[in-house]
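Person: I have long wanted to understand how a fold can be written as tokens. Underneath my words sits a plain record pairing an amino acid chain with its backbone structure tokens. Those tokens are not coordinates but codes from a learned vocabulary of shapes. I should like you to check that the lines agree and flag anything odd. The protein I mean follows directly.
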Amino acid sequence: MHKNMLAFLDMIAFAEGTSTSPATKCKGYDVIVTGEDRKPEVFTDFSQHPFAGGRKSKVIREGLTSNAAGRYQFMGRYWLHYKAALSLPDFGPASQDKWAIQLIRECRAIDLVESGNIVAAIVACKSRWASLPGAGYNQKEHKAADLLAAYTRAGGVLT
């Protein structure tokens, strides 16, 4: 995998708060969205998305629920689609990375990431991750400067 793609994935995990979660034992791949109780939660069964079996979504705050899980905080409602489309064997780290790269591809940002045009890549991908600046999901959005710092800390090269 291209080093800039690895750094961009690390940046997304930073933005989503999974790689920095105090509960993770697996670089954020095991993190479940934090609810209104603010208690970090992880999962250990990577056979499928943790909400795929009918587990109720977590209440984030009044009027907002989520069943996001994994390093890139994938919503459960998309699991079966991407599992089939990408032939994912499970919800393990390799499958989560493959899914995240597919989302970046859908945003037409692969070349932007690999060339180091990360500001443009962030803008292109903001519809996929609520933590990116300008996403507009009424959730915490990180500043571009903080994301660029995370990206370069992860070994990414900016152009």
User: Anything to note?
Assistant: The radius of gyration is 15 Å.
